[in-house]
Protein 1
Amino acid sequence: MGNLLYSAIAFLLSLLPALVLITGVILTARARREHGRAATIGMWGCVVLLLGLALRVAWSLLVPMLVADGGMDTFQVLMLLHGAVDALVTMTGLALLVWAVVVRRARPGAETPAPHTPAPVFTPGRQTPTWEAPAPPPAWETPASHQPRPPYGQEPR
């Protein structure tokens, strides 16, 4: 009964950090278009930290069996190995998150322009759609086509 309670508590205590890291993975994956490389690096940092959390949960579930089967000498060696791997994974995940914060982002407006799409080809006899037809100028801007306008200031009164 003690082992089951120990395992249940270890699992429950790891749920909150797991939810935070899963949320981090989702948010950074969605922000990749806006933040580019920084969001991708941050996403990988969350994934590495989530992997480290999974290793810690697996370790906490295996501890009672390791002590019972291998004795204290085996347990001490495995504890040292686990501590080294856990530290390496945690430092890698945190380094990726810090790198994501300080990585240089593209300036707004410095985006790569979209490739130019050619204008539709006009074919005689075809009615141009309204979206292609230019708007006619207002009547006050264009003189009547049958009467030339005198220069400004020389109009008859």
Protein 2
Amino acid sequence: MERALGVRIAGMVAALVLGMGLVAVGVFLVRQGLDRSAQWASVFGVFLNLVGVLTALFSAWMIWRGRGVATGIGSARPDTTQRYPRVVNQSVHCGSDAYVAGRDQTIVRHTWR
């Protein structure tokens, strides 16, 4: 419980610092004027793109080495603990004018009173 609270507080602090940084950059660009702001935006864009490419390469390397979290479609290590095909039984409650199609479902007609 304490760890979850610490993570939440750290996330809030990080969001606050990021927000303050964005406001500071915005104020800086407004004070620079339109022409110089466009030049500064180009410089910022180059560094942001470089950080993005490095993050993507690091993530790909971690997944390739087997240390990253790879789940979902196209994952490097699919979950083989489930038995296939997976059968899900569920109850569907519907009115008299509803059309429900499905396999392995229990249809229960709901009567309104």
Protein 3
Amino acid sequence: MRRPIGLCIGLLVMLAAGALSAQVKPGRVTGPAANIDPESLINSCVNKYRQELDSGVTGRMRAGSADIIDCLNALILDQVRATMPNPNEAAQRYQAYLQQLSHSHQRIWWEFYNENTFCQTNRCGTDLHVFHLGQHIGLLKDILRGIITHRQREGF
């Protein structure tokens, strides 16, 4: 059964909007959701690439941010595989949803930060070339938190 992409992207956005932070024991998707701490998972991604983020070099900061996005996407897909029927098919679908979401969401913020009328005349600088990635990292964090919180609330 094919699901409309808009419906699934809407679900991801709704999960992000309703995300609640859970305080539970650390873990990965190997046991019940009650043992999963979303903040520990998120921090594992961010800390892995902290040196690049803190480098002050735009190219390295962009690369580190992109690596964090890949890591968070992988964690979201872990949750999909752990909870959805036909886990591999579901992961493929969600990978496509995440790619579409990434393109649209990052594009909105890239244009806002870098293609506005002020930047066209005043040269805003390359530090803004990273900000759209930070916005997308925030969205992925919220999606991961929302999925895990939902699993914990519903007990699966």
